[in-house]
Amino acid sequence: MSVYDQLQALNISLPPLAIPAAAYVPYVQTGNTVFLSGHIARKDGKPWVAQFGRNITTEEGKLAARAVAIDLLGTLQHAAGGDLNRVKRIVKLMSLVNSTSDFTEQHLVTNGASELMAEVFGAEKGAHARSAFGVAQIPFGACVEIELIAELA
């Protein structure tokens, strides 16, 4: 099944290329590896402002991370010349989770993005290395920011 068949089955429409909010580019490619800049969680088109351990649950966070992953896929599609079927493997996700010092479920929040990558690309291509960090703040007060590294064919 192609990536696009899978996206359609999941009822996912990819957004256009995200416009950077500061002095950086959305992605950089070197060889067959593409590095996507961090994308923040958005809700209703605006930053999804929240802090884990204070005013957002882990389950809501999984949804936020999944939404970030969809935005990342839109950028990855652009980086892949418009064809996500060129993705050979999702190599790594790095997730920053806006959380209080006593919140310890950053890894569970990040599962929202990791699980989507496996759904879209399959268990082998979608499996990836990962880091999930709790941080004191993220730009705009967003609850989650995720960056991605992928290998293209």
Structure explained in plain terms:
This protein is an alpha+beta fold and 153 residues long. 33% of the residues lie in helices and 29% in strands. The strands form 2 sheets. It has a 5-stranded mixed beta sheet with strand order 1-2-7-5-6. A two-stranded antiparallel ribbon has the order 3-4. It has helices spanning 3-9, 58-79, 106-126, and strands spanning 27-30, 33-40, 42-43, 46-47, 87-98, 129-135, 144-152. The longest helix is centred in the middle third of the chain and has 22 residues, at 58-79. InterPro entries: Endoribo_LPSP/chorism_mut-like (IPR013813), RutC-like_sf (IPR035959). Residues 7-152 form the Endoribonuclease L-PSP/chorismate mutase-like domain.
Please give a handful of descriptors for the protein shown.
3 helices; 153 residues; 33% helix; Endoribo_LPSP/chorism_mut-like; alpha+beta; 5-stranded mixed β-sheet; two-stranded antiparallel ribbon
List the topology elements.
Layout: H1 3-9, E1 27-30, E2 33-40, E3 42-43, E4 46-47, H2 58-79, E5 87-98, H3 106-126, E6 129-135, E7 144-152
Parallel strand pairs: 5-6
Antiparallel strand pairs: 1-2, 2-7, 3-4, 5-7
What level of helicity do the residues show?
Answer: 25-40%
**Poorly predicted runs:** none
Main sheet record: 5 strands, mixed
Order of helices and strands: HEEEEHEHEE
- How much of the polypeptide forms β-strand, as a percent range? 25-35%
The radius of gyration over CA amounts to 15 Å
Structural class: alpha+beta
* Number of strand segments: 7
Shape: globular
Number of helices: 3
The span between the termini is 17 Å
Which strand order does the major sheet show? 1-2-7-5-6
The pLDDT mean sits at 97
Organism: Comamonas odontotermitis
Protein name: Enamine deaminase RidA (YjgF/YER057c/UK114 family)
InterPro entries: Endoribo_LPSP/chorism_mut-like, RutC-like_sf
Domain Endoribonuclease L-PSP/chorismate mutase-like: 7-152
